[in-house]
Amino acid sequence: MRGVERFSKKIESLHFLKGSGKPSWWLMGVIIAFTLLAVAITVLFGRRAFYESRLTALDQFNKQQLILARSTANSIETYFTEVSTSLSTAVKLPSIQNMYPDGIEHLQNMYEGFLPRTSIRYLDETGILRFIYPFSDWRQKLINRDYSHDAFFIKTKQATGVSISGIIINERNEKRIRMSVPIFRTDGKENDKSRFRGALVVSFDIDDIFRVFIEPIVSGETGYAWLINHEGYFIAHYEKEFVGQDAFNIRTEKSPDLTFESINQIQRSVLAGNEGIGRYVSGWHRGQTGHIEKLIAYSPARIVDQLWSVSVAAPVTEVDRIIRAAAREAVFGFGFVLLILISAGSFLSVSAYRWSYSLEREVKKRTNELKETTDYLDNLIRSANAPIMVWDPAQRVTIINRFFEKMSGWSEDEIIGQPIDILFPDNTRASSLLKVEKASKGEGNWEAEEIPVRRKDGNIRTVFWNSYNTYVDDGKTVIATLAQGQDITDRKQAEDALRESEERLKLTLEATYDGLWDWNLLINEIYFSPRFYTMLGYKPYEMPSTLETWIDLIHPDDREYAPPKYLHLMKDTSETFEMEFRMKAKSGEWKWLLWRGKIVSRDHEGNATRMVGTNVDITERRRTREVLQQERDRAQKYLDVAEVILVAINKDQSVALINKKGCDVLGYREEEILGQNWFDRFLPERIRDEVQSVFQELIEGKLATVEYFENPVLTKTGEERTIAWHNTVLTDETQKIIGTLGSGEDITEHKRAEEERKQLEAQLRHAQKMETMGTLVAGVAHEINNPVNKIIFDIPLLQKIWHDVLPDLKEQAEKSPDRKYGGLTYEFLENNLPQLLSDMDLAANRVAKTVGNLKDFARRSNITDRRPIQINEAVTNALRLIRMPLKTSRIELNVDLGVHIPLIEGDLSSIEQSVINIILNAIQSIDKENGRVEITTGLKKKDRCVFVSISDNGQGIDPSIADKIFDPFVSNKQVEGGIGLGLSITYNIVEAHGGSITFESKKGKGTTFLLMFPSIET
After folding, report:
1. For 278-282, which contacts have Cβ atoms below 8 Å and span 24 or more sequence positions?
2. Which of 858-867, 919-928, 936-945 shows the lowest mean pLDDT across its residues?
3. What is the β-pairing status of strands 892-896 and 932-940?
4. N or C, which end of the chain has less CB nearby within 10 Å?
């Protein structure tokens, strides 16, 4: 106002009014100059305003696209969240976990909310497809198909919640997306962990996702939307060939002459989960080609654990056409206005000063009045205890108060100037905008109109609105619309919850055919629902709803523990109770009813004041239970009189049934056995895997029966009993295998008797052999002892002769150096003949000793000639005696004699004989080049035993005779002339010395014998 006063004073100082009241010529010139200058400035600023308006319009258009992208992303996210929630809820239902008929019905009902051409599948724990819906055409052939190696099934099996796949190709080469959730179930045992039992898989058709969510999106005249998954692949796009392709490469493949770095940069931001707007240059748009600049808006959609993104794009030229058309109209209008301004400028300028002063005063007055009114209304609106908003005829928000900010989550700076449609949820936006439009046109104010509002965070608030229009002076043109609301969200939620609860209770009662009762103990009134009367054959409310009616209908024998009499016992017990008793029907029949109740209120002394509950007719259930019990008792009697063990085992390896014979054998009571894991509790650990494998083959249907199978069982005392089993499978009414039934006979005593019989027969055969051998040895000893004794007697004589002849031979050798004696030189005889005579004496004594050992073996005599000996001496003597066989066999001999080995007590020649026998066996077992024998001696410090280890790399011991290799006359070298006494004699010698002999052998790899003797040193 002060600026207007200063301008008026300057005009007056020019004295532009003459006595006639007309302006002077120079004043006209000034006005015209100022008018032309104003026109030039207006044109300049108009041009600048055009470009700024263009940028603003493009930005506003792109923001509208962002709202469209965000809305679409929310719709997709909401749909897949609902499907995910439905799947997660379904797998917790026992009917789904066990795939009962009602579980299949539940899946079919759940399918009704899915997109067209969606399918739902059930895979069991092994990956076999057991159920698919819809079950038609080509899908029928998929049943029992194995998906265990499918990567998505393996991922689902390892997951703990909902999983979603990338783009996959199904059995018909269709592009699909799958969502799955694993099914976990326990067996109801204590501490039993959940186990994977299968998976539910929903398969979505990509074309349906496009048709339902993407195709309806049109931005401007020709703009369209697309959908990208977390891997950067198109799930839906207007260009069909883009679907399933990499969004970063497909554009370059289509237009290699363009660079798409700007859109690729935007897509990288999209994959990072960002929301925003931008521009990029494309090479096409809906059939057009060339360099086309586009506006793009994008918003993320969180699908389970993946991040998808919806993008909306439109050409910049569409917005430019609208802006340029508006600019042309503005230019034409501006030209017309300019012409009028120039024509009327003079007149207006002459007249202006006449009313400017009075106008200034009036404006100042009205301005103050308007300011006061505006401040009052602004304070009134802002302080109102209800949400208030005002919008203009263009449906843009102009005013909101503090309560509206609190309710909506939007601040005044964020919402002012925005289209009002951002305040409405997607599903009600169209109807809400229609109501806004009618109110803006003055076609009717809102009166308690229920219109939901979407908060900034996405939550929905339900509001009752009243609206009022403000008009210009004509009373028809609306300037603004004010709406005042009342947030009724909490009330609506409470009402909906109550209504849903009542409906759920009603449906539950109708579905279960349960009766409902409500007993007020303070006034002793009771309410019965209609079902209570009908289940007893009465019409609803045919009898009075009184406590006396209830008691009169109860069977006399049951009244003492029915609720009316039983109540006094519930003062200090649980809040709930459940009982069964008989009530008299209208027909006179006694019906069994199951009553469940709960105390819902008590007085200060703890006495019940109100109880509610349900009742259900269980007459048929009781009859069935009694019949089943009678049948079970009868069957159990049959089983208990059987003289064999009868055991039924479930698929989970738990015992389902066992008869009296089985309990007697195991030593447990029946209740101690039922429900236990048969293999872990009643089988020795060493055979569990073997028996479980047979059981598993039966369960999997690979075996129909097991005609005969022996295995031991563990009794309660820890004793093992051998059982001969005959097993078969048990099936349900669908021929599905549910377990096995085994009948077993305790053959423990029979097996023991059989073993004793075999031992006695072996002892008899051995005695017969020893008797035969004794006769043989007596003859051999007689025939051998005479010549051997002759050799032993003559060798000392030869040694003495050699000693006497040696000087003469030496003298003769000096005279005739080349002379030979028996083909041998004197030098050789001097050096070797004494040793040859000594070896002959040792060998002769060895033969004599061997004959004696044979006689001792036949008589089972012990070693009587004992003295302290060194084990290394026995090994060295043995090697010297068999030097020639070793040399001729060309076998590599490795000897490692230990040091500081304690002495043992025994007969040296006997131990030598034992070592010789084993070495000769080793030489005979090697039938290949590079033969090798290794001999080691030492001390086992743990038990202070001296050992001799003899190893070879020969053909090994035949497994068929390995368990009887130390028996007489057992040999696999009969062809070479062996008679099977060597190891038997060796065994007796070692045993007679208080030692032990063991061996390890592998066919074709060789054998190692280990001889152990107790040392005589402490």
Report:
1. 278/62, 279/316, 282/251, 282/255, 282/258, 282/313
2. 858-867
3. parallel
4. C
Please name every residue paired with 589 in a beta bridge, in sequence order, or none if there are none: none
What single DSSP character describes residue 193?
A: P
By the 8 A CB rule, do 518 and 608 touch? no
**CA-to-CA distance for 232 and 980, rounded, in angstroms?**
81
Residues 6+ apart with CB under 8 A from 263: 251, 280, 282, 296
Taking residue 417's Cβ as centre, other Cβ atoms within 10 Å add up to: 11
Between CA 148 and CA 126 the distance in angstroms is 6
Q: In what order do the strands lie in the sheet with 515-520?
A: 525-528, 515-520, 608-617, 590-602, 576-584
DSSP state of 703: -
Q: Contact, 391 vs 420, CB < 8 A?
A: yes
Are 233 and 245 spatial neighbours (Cβ–Cβ below 8 Å)?
Answer: yes
- Residues in Cβ contact with 593 at an 8 Å cutoff, skipping those fewer than 6 apart: 535, 580, 581, 582, 583, 615, 616, 617, 618
- Write out pLDDT tens, residues 344-372: 555 555 554 455 555 566 657 766 765 66
**Main-chain phi, psi angles of 710, to 5 degrees:** -105, 135
- Which residues sit opposite 727 in a β-bridge? 706, 742
Lowest mean pLDDT among 6-10, 533-537, 576-580: 6-10
Give the per-residue pLDDT at 576: 78
Q: Are 879 and 886 in contact (CB under 8 A)?
A: yes
Closest-CA residue to 591 (of 533, 632, 519, 506): 533
Nearest to 219 by CA among 296, 279, 325: 296
Output the six-digit token pair for 51: 């470009």
CA separation for the pair 922, 933 (Å, rounded) = 7
Q: 246-264 burial by CB neighbour count: b if 16+ within 10 A, else e? A: ebeebbeebbeeeebebbb
Task: Give exposure, 920-952, as e/b (b: 16+ Cβ within 10 Å).
Answer: bbbbbbbeeeebebbbbbbbeeeeebbbbebbb
What number of other Cβ atoms are within 10 A of residue 194's Cβ?
A: 12
Q: Interhelix angle for 908-925 vs 871-881, to 10°?
A: 50
Q: Comparing C-alpha atoms, which of 967, 861, 979, 842 is closest to residue 920?
A: 979
Query: Distance between CA atoms of 781 and 806, rounded to whole angstroms?
Result: 37
Residue 99 DSSP SS3? coil
Rounded Cα gap, residues 996 and 1014, in angstroms: 9
> Strand (E) positions, 631-714?
645-650, 655-658, 705-714
Please provide the distance, in angstroms rounded to a whole number, between the alpha carbons at the two ends of the chain: 128
Q: Give the orientation angle of helix 826-859 with respect to helix 748-815, to 10 degrees.
A: 160
**Cis ω for the linkage preceding 712 (within 30 of 0):** no
Structural tokens at position 682: 């009643």
Contacts of 5 (CB under 8 A, 6+ apart): 360
Which CA distances in Å does 729 have to 698, 699, 737? 6, 7, 7
Residues contacting 595, CB < 8 A, separation 6+: 562, 563, 578, 579, 580, 581, 613, 614, 615
Strand ranges (DSSP E) for 211-315? 224-228, 234-236, 276-285, 288-303, 306-315
Contact 618, 594 (CB under 8 A): yes
pLDDT in the model for residue 239: 85
b/e string for 43-79 if b means 16 or more Cβ within 10 A? eeeeeeebeeebeeebeebbebbbbbbbbbbbbbbeb
Q: Kindly state the tokens that stand for 426.
A: 């997607």
The answer on pLDDT for 75 being more than 90 is no
- Average pLDDT of the chain is 80
With beta carbons less than 8 A apart as the criterion, state whether 207 and 237 touch: no
